[in-house]
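Open question from group meeting: does this chain pack into something compact, or does most of it stay loose? Before anyone orders reagents, we agreed to write out a predicted structure and look at it together. Recording both the input and the output here so the notebook holds the full record.
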Amino acid sequence: MFVLTDDAIDVAIDNISGYIVSVVAKDTGKSIDEITEAFLASDTYSLLNDKETGYYWDSISELVEKFRTEIS
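Structure tokens returned:
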């Protein structure tokens, strides 16, 4: 049985963050480093990283769009 622990949430946040960065970098043609820096400074990442918001359970495509909107 899967138990939702802080470690599991941290892994999910890391994986989702990496996915968002790679998708947006590919779509914009910007470097991974540039998009990573922007993502880590974004409201999207702040919300995702805050375990109380539950954003790690939300639609990843919605998070990608939220971040795209934030950087455009």
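Observations to bring back to the group:
The two ends are 42 Å apart (CA to CA).
Residues 29-72 form one domain.
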